[in-house]
Design a protein that fits this description.
mainly alpha, two-stranded antiparallel sheet
Length: about 210
């Protein structure tokens, strides 16, 4: 199993991230009750984002071994610092709600719009770089890359087959298998894997050469 290194604060912070990017919605229908569409947090996409950050794309390099904490932890601290700067500069728009994601920090207490504002502020490097945690300290490019990646990884996790891996989703990629269609596939009209394509491998199509006269 791929270890998920998140503590309570990190998990709450990333739940707040993915919820801001892809929230749940109620769609009006012809039925009496509207249809509930799960958002990223309901599908546990925060775990996907944490795994990708800690074990795939963003492994810190050129840091003393003592400072090599999981990058998701440093990113959660970064988001809280961005949230504090948003509040300090009076750019927040709604009251805080610490009960929204218990165990989270300032970022997780914000409304969805203010969480997105915080990510935008960090993407514009609107915080003192010298006060950021390693490896973000004095590395504006890494801050911007991570803020972009929070959006991208949430989308990848939500619209890919990851949730459909079911009991295997936290295993190493070689051990994962699709156990059911994830709920995002019907939303975009994706019919699922076409396993029959495998039967066509190795076929050679006899196509006439149109460059030569017949």
């Amino acid at each position: 199993m791929v270890p998920v290194t998140a503590n309570v604060h990190v998990r709450a912070t990333f739940q707040a991230v993915v919820d801001a990017v892809i929230p749940s919605v109620l769609l009006p229908t012809c039925r009496i009750a509207p249809r509930f569409i799960e958002g990223a947090v309901q599908l546990g996409i925060d775990l996907f984002v944490i795994m990708q950050i800690d074990h795939s794309q963003f492994v810190p390099v050129n840091l003393p071994s003592a400072n090599q904490e999981p990058l998701s932890q440093a990113t959660a601290q970064l988001l809280d610092l961005g949230a504090a700067e948003l509040v300090r500069t009076n750019q927040d728009t709604a009251p805080l709600n610490p009960a929204m994601y218990p165990g989270g920090g300032l970022f997780a207490s914000m409304s969805r719009i203010d969480r997105l504002r915080t990510i935008t502020l960090l993407n514009h490097v609107g915080v003192p770089l010298g006060q950021l945690p390693l490896p973000y300290q004095n590395h504006p490019g890494l801050v911007q890359t991570m803020m972009d990646s929070l959006h991208q990884l949430t989308m990848f996790g939500y619209y890919s087959e990851w949730y459909g891996y079911g009991t295997t989703r936290l295993l190493a990629p070689v051990d994962q298998k699709v156990e059911f269609d994830p709920p995002s596939w019907p939303l975009i009209g994706y019919p699922g894997p076409a396993y029959g394509y495998r039967a066509l491998r190795g076929f050679v199509l006899a196509m006439p050469d149109r460059r030569r006269p017949q």
